[in-house]
């Protein structure tokens, strides 16, 4: 199940990272770089939904795909947040919250899986809301202009990335609370 269509789509999110970063080094106008990076992010982020759908539809689900999918998402989001910090479009504090949470919860999930308690830290609605807010904020901040001459994507992106940061903390607290009984049981 290493080279199925869904797994290849997941790999494209990882391959997309240097491509999106590279756009900002092209000798084209800033507006063009912003547009190309935004379109690329949206297209590659959409593969997250599509690869899961295809895996189920084509009966090509695998434990490797289940492992790789969230890793690819985290790499793509963290890389884009770092690009946004570099461009001065996102606060470094937001990046620390988002990246720190991803590291902490990934480690928590790995440990919980090792002790056979992974269901207690299964994905929850708060985590999904966090992801949605990130997936809207990032392209808004990559675009960094007026969408259709009306929507100030920078303003909305800044608000949404801070909403995402709050949801990031909230979801981390939620998962830690769910894991706390197992943590206490193992540290006695």
Give the mean pLDDT. Answer: 91
Shape: globular
Distance between the termini: 40 Å
Strand content: under 5%
Which structural class do you get from the secondary structure elements? Answer: mainly alpha
Largest sheet: 2 strands, antiparallel
Number of helix segments? Answer: 6
Topology pattern, helix = H, strand = E: HHHHHEEH
Radius of gyration: 18 Å
Proportion of helical residues? over 70%
Strand order of the largest sheet: 1-2
Please count the beta strands (DSSP E, at least 2 residues each): 2
Q: Which stretches are low in confidence, meaning pLDDT under 50 for 5 or more residues running?
A: none
Main attributes of the structure:
mainly alpha; two-stranded antiparallel sheet; 6 helices; 2% strand; globular
Task: Report on this structure.
The chain is mainly α. Helix content is 78%, strand content 2%. It contains six helices and two strands, in the order H-H-H-H-H-E-E-H. It has helices at 5-23, 30-57, 63-86, 92-114, 125-143, 153-186, and strands at residues 146-147, 151-152. A hairpin with a 3-residue loop joins strand 1 (146-147) and strand 2 (151-152). The chain starts with a helix and ends with a helix. The model has no long low-confidence stretch (mean pLDDT 91).
């Amino acid at each position: 199940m290493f080279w199925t269509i869904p797994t290849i789509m997941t790999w494209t999110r990882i391959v997309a990272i240097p491509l999106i970063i590279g756009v900002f080094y092209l000798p084209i106008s800033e507006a063009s770089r912003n547009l190309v990076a935004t379109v690329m992010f949206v297209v590659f982020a959409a593969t997250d939904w599509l690869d899961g759908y295809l895996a189920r539809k084509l009966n090509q689900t695998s434990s490797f795909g289940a492992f790789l999918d969230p890793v690819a998402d985290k790499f793509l989001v963290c890389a884009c947040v770092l690009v946004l910090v570099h461009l001065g479009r996102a606060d470094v504090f937001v990046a620390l919250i988002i990246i720190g949470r991803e590291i902490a919860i990934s480690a928590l999930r790995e440990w919980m899986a090792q002790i056979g308690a992974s269901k207690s830290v299964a994905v929850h609605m708060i985590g999904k809301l966090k992801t949605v807010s990130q997936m809207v904020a990032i392209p808004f901040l990559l675009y960094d202009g007026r969408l259709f001459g009306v929507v100030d994507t920078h303003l909305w992106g800044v608000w949404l990335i801070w909403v995402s940061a709050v949801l990031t903390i909230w979801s981390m607290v939620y998962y830690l609370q769910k894991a706390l009984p197992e943590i206490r049981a193992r540290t006695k």
